[in-house]
Amino acid sequence: MLKARTPAIIYRFAENQPDRLPALLADLISRQVSVIAAMSTRGAIAAKAATTATPIVFIAAEDPVWLGLVASLARPGGNVTGINFLVGELTAKRLELLPVLVGPHNAAGTETTLRDMKPAARTIGLEIQVHHAGTIREIDVAFSDVVRARVDALFVGPSPRFAGRRIHITNLAMRHGIPATYSQREYCEVGGLMSYGTNLAAAWHRAGVYIGGILKGAKPADLPIVQASKFEFVINHQTARTLDLTVPPSLLATADEVIE
Questions:
Q1: 190 φ/ψ angles, rounded to the nearest 5 degrees
Q2: Up-side HSE of residue 228: CA atoms within 13 Å toward CB?
Q3: Which of 5, 74, 85, 171 is the most buried (most CB within 10 A)?
Q4: What residue ranges define each of the domains in the chain, with the CATH number in brackets?
């Protein structure tokens, strides 16, 4: 009788330095890993460029066909499959709920955000300003510009760097009294006003299911891309009161969660 084996997980982190990805992936491939889990769009693109043999499961915010990761959603082909959690594609919806802050190091996400935002803003009669930031200093400068411009609200684009600095960003928005909307509920959990986006825990779980399937013999080419179907609208009512904002009861009623 064969004994069940416990998979060994090898972590590699580029520490927000994308130029390190090729070397990190080369190291993983040299170790003959069974599957590569690429947990960012940039990581997925780098992994696909690094190998056509090792199975890859990605989580990406943008359309994986548009990114060139797979041939189609139903039939990915090759050695790549994964989860598309649709952060970029929700731009217009988030804009309807509320200057734009985007990350220059997340080129694909920035392009998607601006592509969808500009026509959506025109439709509802909004004028937008775009500020690029990535480092703490750049974020501080962007907020200074936003404050001087006396904007009505801030739209924070999806970016791994922003997610890692969400406490700093939400604190700045609160300090300057700027209503802001975000792509992930995690921002609201640390004081952000509101968010609309995919339930990332569900996306991570689905990626784990795919990785488990590949370890048991499934082929990435046979696993269709999973598109997120659960979206969350979260309002931090305490933050709204601090900002002296009245949230209409109709909007509170549509929220999946209201943080009091």
A1: -115, 20
A2: 26
A3: 85
A4: 18-86+199-230 (3.40.50.2300), 88-197+232-259 (3.40.50.2300)
Closest CA to 61 of 113, 98, 14: 113
Give residue 71's identity as a one-letter amino acid code.
Answer: A
**Strand 194-198's sheet: what is its strand order?**
130-132, 100-102, 154-156, 180-182, 194-198, 231-236, 257-259
